[in-house]
Every structure is written in structure tokens, then in C-alpha cells.
Amino acid sequence: IKKRNISVEELVQGVKCNDRAFLAQAITLIESNAQKHKDKAQQLLKLLLPDTGKSIRIGITGVPGAGKSTFIEAFGTMLCEQGYKVAVLAIDPSSTLTRGSILGDKTRMERLIQQKNAFVRPSPSGGALGGVNRRTRETMLLCEAAGYNVIIVETVGVGQSEGMVRDMVDFFLLLTLTGAGDELQGIKRGILELTDAILINKADGENKVQALQTASLYTRMAHVFQPITDGWTVNISTCSALLGEGITEFWQTVRMFEAETKSSGVFEQRRLQQQKKWLYTSIREELEQRFFSQPEMRAHIFACERDILQGKKTVTTAVAELLTYYEAL
Amino acid sequence: IKKRNISVEELVQGVKCNDRAFLAQAITLIESNAQKHKDKAQQLLKLLLPDTGKSIRIGITGVPGAGKSTFIEAFGTMLCEQGYKVAVLAIDPSSTLTRGSILGDKTRMERLIQQKNAFVRPSPSGGALGGVNRRTRETMLLCEAAGYNVIIVETVGVGQSEGMVRDMVDFFLLLTLTGAGDELQGIKRGILELTDAILINKADGENKVQALQTASLYTRMAHVFQPITDGWTVNISTCSALLGEGITEFWQTVRMFEAETKSSGVFEQRRLQQQKKWLYTSIREELEQRFFSQPEMRAHIFACERDILQGKKTVTTAVAELLTYYEAL
Predict the structure, then answer these.
(1) Phi first, then psi: what are they for B251, rounded to 5°?
(2) Residue B145's closest CA among B7, B275, B2, B17?
(3) B31-74 confidence digits (pLDDT tens)
(4) CA B306 to centroid of chain Cα atoms
(5) Helices and strands, counts by H and E, chain B
(6) Is A270 in CB contact (< 8 Å) with chain B?
(7) ipTM of this predicted complex?
(8) Of the residues B52, B105, B128, B159, which has the fewest C-beta atoms closer than 10 A?
(9) Domain ranges of chain A
(10) Does B311 touch chain A if contact means CB atoms closer than 8 Å?
(11) Model confidence pLDDT, tens digit, residues B305-318
(12) What topology is assigned to B1-49 in CATH?
């Protein structure tokens, strides 16, 4: 299938029938940087748009070690066994630096991968954060067109990807560890306030008591913040992904969230706002990318930076000069 | 003084001598949108740059009603009496909408205004957030050149100005109210994590016990977040601006912060990073401003937005079309 030049129409049909080989091929097209692939990818997406948007999109974040893989495997397998079709996409901006995704590990989620209703796609490597954003969103749309009705977008909890994932999902979960003091400091600035639910994982054995105490602290803290989703109070619970405890309850929370926000209109409103925001964010990223990637600009920008830090030039003057130079290119 | 056309050299001398009329004139120049004023303002700033940067810059935020004016008046007056020269600048992005600053009220800070060592400047009105940012930063530099050694930048706690203020000050204070539950929900998302200190104001009379309880909750919460300033633990205390209690202690905290961060190099490092960030932020704002303010672009952007929301066009296609159109203008 990879060698032959498949037409857009064939791909549309293949994806709609949830032929995994066609879906994988379509995603490869989305991830390609070649212009002819980009054009074909956009034609494909446009034809599939009417079939998108019908899933529940769940974002999951947490520091490395919080047990995200184990949790997603337990959660995804449970959903597959209930008849849901589950796609797991991973965002790992660090892989753009290390040129190898830590999520690419084939041994991850072995049990989930064997489910016929599951589709697990590691993070696309290479490219800037804007590129990762576009690829993940478009891959999500392809998966929806292929009939997946639960999309899980996982972020590795390093870098700046949480805000990006929040902006593409309906429900955002922070998976964290039990503990207090130093361990809690692992939570990144701003993350707590993006979440619809916080699950304290590894609430088993000797950890259980402490996990419940941590849940109680988070519950008090949650009252301090304005909820990110209108009308929804952040749900705070414990779970043990290892023992499979708290997984059913988490899914009930998601379903309750979906029912309530759909009935209040908040669900649809967020989807529309996410679409709009994506347009404006993409325009900004493209404007910046064109400016900063101009080889002629680099030396000028660095010279301005140096003059500013040495107190020889004001920022306002530097910006005016740089823009004049850019527009004359 | 306002009618005559004062030369840049006269302004430089006037500001350096801390002649208030010249300082006010210089700030008016910075705030002007006329091109000849802009050019003159930048010449002035360039000549004054060697005399800037020698103050401690303190940002203060808090919801309306937290008692910021009363606090700043008590704090500023105390500093003036100790021989410090205090400049108070206000940022009020809402005034760009209402066309009248709620901070422009002449009756505010009556006691402080009477101090010969104090300079209180209400928020400049009009213009976008980027403009407010530039004007406030440049006004701060003028005040430093005029010899003010404590600069207080106040934000009214509405809108999106806290991150902007955080990026231009050395020390950031959240002034908040005593209380729990609903009252605490007034704290805006992300603010808590920007602060170097939280002061619970109105800790007097019947409120005192509750204020101490709130301080204790914040102290536990502070452990959850990574501190915004390397090596500094967020300071949480109570005060009563009305009774003048806790004001001396706050100043001691600021001095301790200054001593520690200067000795560790974090102070200077932050200043350099703020300068760099301001350059890059200004470039981005200018690129966006030029794109979005093009009258020819507006109709195209709105058409794309509509097509996207109706599922007729992909975001990627829309962005490519819009950028092609823009570059052909």
C-alpha cells in the first residue's frame, strides 16, 4: 500500500471503512512536509470533515512516572471491551529535540494494542510546536472519520504542550501521584487550572491513606480557582491503574461531564471557540515562522538583541527597524 | 511648558533633574501616537538609557475591592518618609474600552500625592494592550532616569495585564482578601503562580482570625507550585492597610528578596530575560497588528472563519490562503 500512489478518493473510502492501513497512510500524508503531500492531505481532510467531530476528546497529562501509560491501557481496554472505539494519540514536543519519541516505544500499551477497537499512534517527530499542533488535530479528525468515538490525546508532561492539548479536547485530566510537599511540586505552573478532573494514581497499598489526604487538599484548592469549564466543578478522585480501581468511576465522570455540558450548550460552544482559536493561533504562528525563519533577518535580530542588552538601543526603535527591513525583503 | 516646542536635550536635562513638569512632558511624549512625537520620544529614551534600571520594580495586583489603593498609599507614604523616591504607575486595560480610567480619579492616594518624593501617574488610556505595555515600560524608564528608586506598577486585576506586569517587574505581589470558599474564587487563573508574595489584606477586627486561616491555606498551596523566582519561596502574610499593619514587614520581605536574588544572580538574569522577551513579544505584536489591521484582510478572515465553523474548509487551507493573499497586498 505504501508504494502505490493512492488517490484521495480511495483514501476517503479507506478511512471511512476504518481500514487501518488506509488510516495509517492518511496520517502519514498529514505528517509529511512535502508540498504535494500537504495539498493531498488537505483535500482528503476537506472531504472527511462531515464525518468528524462525533467523538468525545479527552486530554491526559501528568509528569513522567505518574503512570499515564498504565492508566490509558487500563482505561482504553475497558472502553474497547464495552464496544467503544478508542484512538490514543501522543504529543511529545521533546521528541522534536531528541529526534526520537520516548512514546514511540513499541512495548507500550501492549494489551491495548491487541484490541481490535483500539488505535494507538505514537507522537510524530520533527517540526516546531505549531506543526505538532496541526498534525495532532488533523490526525484526530482522521480518527473520528474512521469511526473512533473516544479520542485520547496524551501529553508527556514536559514542555509547553498542555495548553495546546487543552485547546483541542473536550475534557482534560491531570493524572498525578500521591504524596505531599516536594512530590507535589512536580505539578507544572498553570496545569491545575486547566483541568476538569484530577486523578491521584497509585492509590494502592501503603499509598492509599496519603492519596486520600492529597485528594482532600486538592479539593480545597479547587475551590480557589475559577473552573475552566462553565458550570463544572473539578472532579478530584483517586485511582489505581495497576489494580484497575477507579477506572470505571472516571469514565462515569467523563460521561456525566459530557451530558451536562451538552445540555447546557457549553460543549458545543467550546468546540466552536476551539476552531476559531486554532485559526487565529495558526495565522500568528505562520506570521512568526515566516519572519523568524528568514535567514537575512537572523543577524539583524541578534544585533538588535545585543544592542538592547548593552543599553545602546531601545526596544521600540529595534522593532521599527527590524520590521522595516523585513518588509523590504 | 506645554505650548513651547522643547528640545530633546532640554527634556533629558529636565528629567535628570527630576523636574516634574519635564517628566510629565516626557511621559506625554511617550504616550503620543503622532509619528514626530514617537521619534522624539525614542531619541529621548536612548539618551536616558544609561540612567535607567537602578530601581526596585514592584508589581501589585488584586481584584477590585482588595484595597490596593489604600495599601499603595500606606506603603508609598512610609517609603517616602524613609527617604525613598516612589513612582506609582497604573495599568488599566479596561480603560481602553470604557474610554476613561477608573484609576484616573484624582481623589485616589491623596496622602501619597502630597509627598514631595512621590510621583503618581494614572493609566494612559486608549490603544491596544501592546501599546499599554510599551508606554508603561517606557514611563518606568523615564521615572528611573528621574531618580525614582521604588517603582510600583499597579494592575486593576481585570483583563489580561498580570502576565504583562510580571514581565516588567522584579517582585510581584498579590494583594487579596480574607475569606474562604466563594470569596477565594475571585482569584484569577494563573495569578497565584506568578507571585513572589501574597498579602491577605483587611486582617483587622473580626476578619483577623479568618485572614490567618486563609494564610495557612495559601502556605500549603504554595508548596504545590514551582516558585516563579528561582530560590525564593513565596512569602505569605497578612496585613491591614487601613491600620498600617504589616506594611513595614512587607518592605522587609522585598528587601530580603532583592538581597537574595542579587547575590544569586537571579535578579540580573531576570532583567536581561525581560529585555529579550520584550523584544520578541514586540516583534510578534507588530507582525500581528499589521496583519489584522489591514482593512482588506478583515473580510477574508471573517469568510474563512465562517467556512471553518460550517465545516466547509480546513484551518490549514484557510491559513495558507490568507497568508498568500496578505503577502500579495
Answers:
(1) -65, -35
(2) B17
(3) 988 889 999 999 999 999 999 999 999 999 987 778 899 999 99
(4) 36
(5) 13, 7
(6) no
(7) 0.87
(8) B105
(9) 1-49, 52-278, 294-329
(10) yes
(11) 999 999 999 999 99
(12) 1.20.5
